[in-house]
Structure formats: structure tokens, C-alpha cells
Amino acid sequence: MRGLSSHTTGAAGSRSALLAQLSGFVETCLGLHFPPERLGDLERGVGSAAGEFGFSTIDSCIEWLLATALSRRQIETLASHLTVGETYFFRDRRVFDILETQVLPAIIESRRGRDQHLRIWSAACSSGEEPYSLAILLTRMIPDLKDWIISILATDISPLSLKKADEGIYGEWSFRDTPRWVKEGCFKQRADKFEINPRIKRMVTFSCLNLAEDPYPAIINATNAMDIIFCRNVLIYFSRDRADAVIRNLSRCLVDGGWLVVSPVEVPGTVAPPLLHPVRFPGAVLYRKGAMTEDVIPRPATLPAMAVARPKPAALGGSGKAPGTARPVRPKKKPQVPVTAAGDGGPSPQQARRLADQGRLAEALAVCEAVIPADKLNPALYYLQATILQEMGRTGEAVVVLQRALYIDQEFAIAHFALGHLLQGQGRHREAGKHLAKACSLLQGLGHDEVPPEAEGMSAGRLIELIQAMQGLEGRG
Fold it and tell me: Are residues 72 and 97 in the same domain?
């Protein structure tokens, strides 16, 4: 147990004054807003965190927080105590009924037989019940799921919550107000706990992301071109300005016609972006990106029997080797060349990125492949190609293309980072560890706030913290 601070608290440093100071600190570093009427919540949260930080009193913990340059892990630990991660499977059934009867059928029908892909993001996913509920719903709705490219991204600021989510083991409390078939059909009982079916678990990718600080949309963290985004019970912790900024960024992450799902209590007071419009359903309001739409009156929601489709792992499958792909010969070392736009108005990397952000992945890949022959030794072009292939679910090919980029430039930190992430998802932990360690080593040679090439605004320091979180998840396995 850490000893008490030697600083004594005087009149100016009373508990209320300390909490007021801490409130400003928390808003600056986390974006979490605790106005005077919510200082009691802040006090309870820091009281919970004090023991984990090694303090026996709240005051000594607050003084330490205000006087210490906290590491990212310490900041995320504090955040996990200041936000309520209370959730359960199929929380708010009205929303899931709307998805099942109105939103998803339209998306599925528009893409069936053509570009069969679907991208969903559960932001602030806590311990994972929400993204797993989405995966379960898709297994019920799409009998030929093996022929679809399904990406369910689940992010949270708390590494501890992500570890629990990645384990996929839950107690009875996570199934309260949940249909009986969910537990019976999608989980295996282990003593007094329930472990999620591996085929459903593989549909979800967990990652650490701070909605207040990290960049999004961004290819590097796969937050672009989303069809549906869930961001529930998190905006209430932000100030109005910060909540507005989060909603603007989430809107940019959606494809045209994409849907944003937030809690009703979080919307009043926020300013919706111009292209984000409310669509009113009985009992719920969702937000859609695009031209103004009329109110929708859904047909009665019914839940069909559990489908028996066997899903294809989303963005995790593949052997890591493309059939018939020869090992490329590494050319002599060439300095990394920044990607620049074509001056003649022809195909360009920027055009490929724009198409990818719009969810037009096949077109984006075609443009990228048209650009590469003119600059075959530019590793950044291969990195762009690999990110598009990853989004298309062609993970094995993406791995090969990233390896090609690294044959050209062994010091391409972001390519090591991306390759480590893909290999980790494939269960190739030893190879993944080598690339993550190499990326970390290269990033440590940069300034903490320096942005590496192709990092889309993410600093070297933040990338190192993400790698450490990924290594923590790998070590758990």
C-alpha cells in the first residue's frame, strides 16, 4: 500500500476544493465532465480507484493524481473507475428489434449477391456484451453468413474491460432481461459461468480507443466506413462541446446511409452534424447519415428461431499466405517515399482512401492496384493496399502485402504494427510479438508526440501504449 502524501490539506485544499481541481484535470486528460452537481460521482469513482493505485484515503489519492504525470495506463485505469461499465446482453431490446426488422434487412438486401460486407462498431463496449449481442443477432439473420465479410469492431478506453470482453466469460448478471435462448444457444456453461461460443467470439475484434483523444475515422484503427455505430452510455460523461465533437467524428466514420445508435438521454443539448438526421421508431430514435428521411413505422418485431449458419470469422481468418504467391525479393534499401497525389487527375492514393472511407472497397482496391505499378518501391502504397484488403476480409492477402512493404523498408513502423495486429488475430502470436516489438522499438526512437508516416495523426507515444495493451491481451492468452 502506497504511503500517505506528506502534503497536508489546509482550508484551501479541502475535499470539495480537491474534487473541483480533479474535475478540471479529468476533463482535460479524459474528456469526462463532472460539473458541481456530479462531484459526488467523481468522489465515489476516485474512492474506488484509490485502492488500485495503492492509497488508503481519497484525499491522498487525489493529491497524487494532481501532482503526478500519469502514464496512459494509469489514465485508463482512472477512467475505468469514473465510468459505469454496467451492461448486459441485448440491453434495450427495442433497439435490437429495430435493427432486426428495419435497419439490417435493408442493408443486407442492398448488398446480397454483390458486395456482401457489413461493418459495425461498438464504441465504449465495456465488458463486451453489446458487440457479442450484435454478433449473435447477425448469426440469426444471415443464414449464408460464411459468404459475407463481417467486421464488428469493439473499443473501450479500459484495458481491464477489454480483457474481460476478450475472455468472453460471463456470470448470470450479464443475462438479466435477456432472452433465454441467448444463454442456451450461444454459451457453454462452466461451473457458475458461461463462455461464449468460439465461432461467435471470432466475429468481434477488440481494441483500445479513447473517444476523447484518438483520431477517428482512420484506417489505422479500422474506424472508417462503418454501416452502424453503437455509442451508448458514454456521451453523458462528456461536456457538451466534447460530446458534439465525438458525434461529429462518429458521423464522419459512417458511410452514406449509415446509422448511429446513442442513448436517448445523451442526445439533448448536443448539436447533430448537418448530415445526421433522427429517424423515429416506436420507442426509440436512431440517427441516419444522409439526406433527410421520413419517419419510419416498423412492422411488429418478432424473433425467429436460432439460425444454424456457421459464420466466417470476420477479419481474422486466412492462413496468412496467399495461394501461389511467391516470396518477394527484397530490393536494396530505399528511403520511405511519402504518398503524393497524381498531378494529371488520374488514379491516386487519395482517391483510393476516399473510396475506402465511403465503403466502396472493391473500387478502392482497383484504384490502389492501378497506382502501384508506377511506384513499385513505395512501401506506403502497399500499406494502403493491405488496409483495404483487410477491410474486405482478405486477411491472408493483407499479410502478404504488408510483408512486401517490409521487404522494401524494414523500418516502416506502422507496417510492423499492422502486421502484428493481423497475425495476432490469426493466432500466430510468436510472429505477431516480433512485429509488435519491432514497431515499439522504432516508435521509441521518435518523440512522444511525433506522428509517424501513415499513422493518420496518431502519435508515437499513443501507438506505443496501444501496442502495450495488445501485448497484454496476447499475454493473457
Answer: no
